[in-house]
Design brief:
heterodimer, A: six-stranded mixed β-sheet, four-stranded antiparallel β-sheet, 7 helices, about 35% helix, about 20% strand, B: 9 helices, P-loop_NTPase (chain A), nucleotide-binding (chain A)
């Protein structure tokens, strides 16, 4: 599979700057209390290929924490960095370009209901890359088949079942070989074929050097994936706290 | 108090409520006594204490706050519209803005606004041609002012009526759709999710739609003018009011267009489309969780109409 050609917004940064960890939260304390994430200090460092498994029983908090990792919060103190680039100091164009290197799965998929699903799936790649359309379609079709869809879905999102929308979300998240996956309660153990396909793609992504933040409300979903070198954490209103394995 | 002799009511006819003893004493009527008609001495109310400087300042401050709040509430959307207009222009001239997703959105919006509004424009243009042009030609001929036909049609139909009608058609056919779509996206929180994927909603949604509506406004405006004039000519020619060929008729209209109008008329078409597109996008995004389609649509429509009329008045005042 060919690697996507990125937009020029980041190429100069990536060429000049020494790259730091893929994700680095250093005592990052959000400024506002009313945005669904507690204004406590969060610390987390993920290098390429590393994975953080985080238990969280509050779906809104999980979603907002992934937003924090994507630099969508103003910080009162501390810093949040991606590839060594501080979200707070980047201009808007570079911020968007950096977010384009991420894959996200969450409770709120954000489908545009008046666009067909193939446009929804390809939208981030069409916006952020120069990869030819044929290659993007081939890549999306291959991923769709891996996740159990008959091909690249072309229906409107409201006309699709919940499970098919979920599959489409995985396709969108894994498109373009992301460098960071932010997953907020992405999957349950059923259906098993989808679960296995998801774990397979996750493993391939990590082997490629993609860092993963996987938040789950039920830790049993990690059973077939967790390894000793991964970080185990618990996310609550008190912040991020280490957790002893599974 | 005068009491009427028949029923003991005051002259007004309203029955009196029974008074407590202390009140009766004050008013000069005590239990077991006849009514005393002598006026009772008035209670002297205490004189008002003059306001201190701090209180006066607080009153003035509150008045200023209220005035400022009212002015800001009334002018907020207009200021947002002006600022966003500049933003759209700045982004639209940058090649990097026109990524594939934005280009797709532009062509889709252009198809929707131009293709969707074409039939409505043709129908309205035919009706205008039948009504306005035919009547103008007939009555000018009746008054012996046939040579004024071209200039009056150019001034009234092409310069004044066409931009407003095309703007209203665009607003109703495409603007309201934009308000509804973006309003639903905003209230569902999906714009934030788009931002989370690095897709700027301003670049991905507002810029292409506004530019598409601008192009559409100009296209539909030209189509409207040509069809309305052509229809008017056909009606007049069929009734024998006009005998010149259609090219001469059109040339007469074109020749009577003044130099400033060669800039003013296209500007009106362009800016009507631009203002409808942008005001619809902003009305769709300028919603709260409490808003629904029943509140967004009327607000978007009134803002759109206001922006069309404002554009026309401003250009008229600039180009005479």
């Amino acid at each position: 599979m060919r690697r996507n050609k990125k937009t020029p917004a980041l190429t100069e940064d990536l060429a000049v700057l020494p790259l730091g960890p893929v994700l680095e939260l250093s005592e990052a304390r959000p400024l506002y209390i009313d945005e669904g994430v507690s204004p406590v200090a969060y610390s987390l460092t993920l290098a390429a290929g590393e994975c953080a498994l985080i238990e969280c029983h509050d779906s809104q908090l999980a979603q907002r924490f992934t937003d924090l990792c994507a630099g969508m919060f103003t910080l009162a103190s501390g810093s949040a960095k991606c590839l060594g680039l501080d979200w707070q100091t980047l201009d808007e164009r570079r911020t968007n370009a950096l977010r384009g290197l991420m894959g996200r799965v969450g409770e709120e998929a954000g489908w545009i209901d008046f666009d067909p699903m193939q446009i929804n799936i390809l939208a981030p790649s069409l916006y952020h890359t120069y990869t030819p359309l044929d290659e993007l379609v081939d890549q999306a079709t291959t991923l769709s088949e891996i996740f159990g869809l008959p091909g690249l879905p072309i229906e409107m999102p409201p006309h699709m079942s919940f499970l098919d929308r979920r599959r489409s979300e995985y396709v969108r998240a894994f498109m373009g070989e992301p460098i960071l996956l932010l997953l907020a309660d992405p999957i349950s153990r059923e259906p098993e074929d989808l679960y296995n396909a998801f774990l397979g793609q996750m493993t391939m992504a990590c082997d490629r050097g993609c860092a993963v933040v996987w938040i789950a409300s039920d830790r049993s979903v990690w059973k077939d994936y967790a390894q000793e070198d991964m970080q185990f954490l618990r996310l609550s209103d008190g912040g991020l706290n280490p957790m002893r394995g599974l | 108090m005068n009491v009427s002799p028949e029923h003991g009511l005051p002259p007004s006819g309203t029955p009196r409520a029974p008074q407590p003893a202390e009140d009766r004493a004050v008013s000069g009527v005590s239990a077991g006594q006849k009514k005393n008609t002598a006026p009772a001495p008035k209670d002297q109310s205490p004189l008002p204490v003059p306001l201190r400087a701090a209180e006066r300042f607080a009153v003035i401050q509150n008045l200023l706050v209220l005035t400022g709040h009212f002015v800001r509430m009334q002018s907020r959307f207009m200021l947002v519209l002006i600022g966003s207009s500049w933003g759209v222009i700045c982004q639209a001239v940058q090649p990097l803005t026109w990524r594939r997703l934005v280009r797709m959105e532009f062509w889709r919006s252009l198809r929707q606004s131009t293709g969707g509004g074409l039939l409505s424009v043709l129908v309205v243009a035919v009706i205008s041609g039948l009504g306005i042009v035919a009547q103008a030609v007939f009555w000018l001929g009746f008054a012996g002012m046939t040579q004024m036909t071209g200039s009056i049609l150019a001034r009234v139909l092409v310069r004044e009526i066409a931009p407003v009608l095309v703007g209203v058609i665009l607003l109703g056919r495409s603007g309201m759709l934009i308000v509804a779509q973006l309003g639903v996206l905003t209230t569902a929180g999906k714009l934030r999710i788009l931002s989370g994927m690095g897709i700027d909603p301003f670049i991905a949604l507002i810029v292409p739609r506004t530019v598409a509506m601008t192009v559409s406004g100009f296209t539909l405006g030209v189509i409207f003018s040509v069809v309305a004039l052509g229809m008017g000519y056909i009606v007049c020619w069929s009734q024998g009011i006009v005998t010149m060929p259609i090219w001469s008729f059109m040339f007469q209209v074109a020749a009577s267009v003044s130099k400033p109008d060669y800039l003013g008329i296209p500007l009106k078409f362009l800016l009507s489309g631009f203002s409808v597109g942008l005001s619809s996008c902003l009305s769709g995004m300028d919603v709260t969780q409490n808003d629904s389609l029943s509140t967004m649509i009327p607000r978007g429509f009134s803002r759109g109409i206001l922006s069309i009329l404002t554009i026309n008045v401003v250009i008229d005042s600039l180009f005479g």
